[in-house]
Input
Amino acid sequence: MEIASGSGQHAAHFAAHLPGWTWQPSDATAESFASVAAWRALAGAGQVRDPVLLDVLAPVWPTQGPPFAEPFDALYCANMLHISPGATCAALMRGAAKHLTPKGLLITYGPYLERDVPTSPGNLAFDESLRLRNPDWGLRALEDVASQALLVGFLLHKRLQMPANNLLLVFGRKA
Ligand SMILES: C[S@@+](CC[C@H](N)C(=O)[O-])C[C@H]1O[C@@H](n2cnc3c(N)ncnc32)[C@H](O)[C@@H]1O
Output
């Protein structure tokens, strides 16, 4: 299950490399749904489902259409937390707790601030530009994201350094 799929490039790439997985794209708006379909066709990734409307802030997921019939093995969310209001972080965690299997993983990707790690000049400038566009946007502190996860019983299992000062964070249930 992918939150905030945007163009659908990630969906197409992952699905093409993970043929055993079914991929459910989603986004808060339908603006890029045609793009998701185009990337799916280009990658020949037939196991990418049609995208669904899903605003993480909505009380019920998905926002439109029938509720999800089954829990998901993984929830993947790239580049949303810093380009949306801070409340999306808690909402993402609540949704993960509700829609993941007991061993399911929440995987987030993007730039973060970290207490004991100097922020790169590029990420500092990016943070500033985001806040200028919208005062509710901006890079989130990894520690705050992990605290929100803890509130729903999820622990940060892995922090993987990615290119261009991005991180891949893997959260799973405590027990
Ligand atoms: C920068 S794009 C990232 C797209 C894609 N994940 C990527 O990494 O290329 C941010 C996406 O977050 C989506 N988004 C913003 N607020 C959201 C919300 N409350 N719920 C779900 N998606 C949201 C936007 O519609 C947009 O597609």
User: Anything to note?
Assistant: The CA atoms of residues 156 and 171 lie 4 Å apart. The mean pLDDT is 97. Residues 3-7, 10, 27-29, 54-57, 78-80, 83-84, 88 surround S-adenosylmethionine (CB under 6 Å).
